[in-house]
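Notebook entry, structure prediction.
Reason for the run: the old model in the group folder had no record of what sequence produced it. Starting over properly, with the input documented here first.
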Amino acid sequence: MEKYYFEGYLRKEGTAGTRNYIGVVCSVICSSVIANDISSKVPGTVPIIHSNGCAQLGDDFQVTKDMLVGVASNPNLYSALLVGLGCETNQISGLLDSIPKTKPVEGIGIQQLGGGENTLQKGVHIAERWAKELSDKRERLPLSNLTVGVVSVDIDEESLEKVHPVVGKVIDSLVAHDATVIMGITDTLAPAGPLLSERSEKKEVRAELSNLGEESYRKRWKETNSKVHAARNFSKEEKDLAALEAKLAGTSTIKGLLAYSENAEECGLYLTKASSNLVETLSNMISCGCNIALVVSSRGTLTGSIALPSMTLTPKSADGGAFEELVDYMVTEEDADIQSRNVIEELIKISSGKKTALEEYGLGEFSIPHVGTTF
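New structure, fully documented this time:
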């Protein structure tokens, strides 16, 4: 078997970054402007801003906290500066206590520092100090240091027929090289839960996958604490499309079903929850430890994720496709084995520093999903 390597940033705890950013992370929407301003003044930083953190309760609060802890811990960040207001539910102190002490991490608060201008100056001072420590040196590393997020978005039956032979082989090859692959369970994939359950050796994982339809929708607030949820009745058309989409996951054994912000315990293929919002899904993949993502689409996407290079793959279209300039690889009628190797080689180039099309255009966002609506 051909051996693959990439050039990455090896971290102290053994993980590796495909990028080497300083993250400026707001704990709450109220500090997002200051966090963004700090990042805008220091090269090498990325702003992790969102609309959550204020007066959140229960599961939604826990999702917000866990995702920010996961993002700050992601190996694509050399360090993380947490910026809070001071009165939010999602306190800086709680985040600092939960983030593993494996990288430089500090927290500052607007109220504690006496206003936005003081916080801006303090944040810039910290970020500039870290920026001087950043090194461009990459090391040759095996694919076992890669955690690859995979998600399909706006995919149709015709496109799936064209791309699944290639993507499935890519995932199987990554797993064979001891990489970790985390595939998002989209709404269209959920009906294939019973089919996917046959690929796990663990009883509890098979049970979870068999019951995917029970909680594959966003619930009203009054329903979130209910212990009984009616399973969805999927149509034959939904099941047929899901069975086709399941082929994207190749043939490897499914090791587990990850919750929001849960990291894989070992290498192999995992599934995780995916929102209908691509940015939310990619943001969750960052918090799950992914250091690169593969987005499979019928026509390309208009945005990716902050701090997570997202390689876009589509089928080649006769008319050139809607967003051809934002696509990194187009699947043709060429042999699937040859194309799967081409995709992996492109994935390795991106992991080693080559910018994705979305990165070239500066198209990246961050967003935290909600467990339930507030009405």
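Summary: The first strand starts at residue 5 and ends at 10.
The old model has been moved to the deprecated folder.
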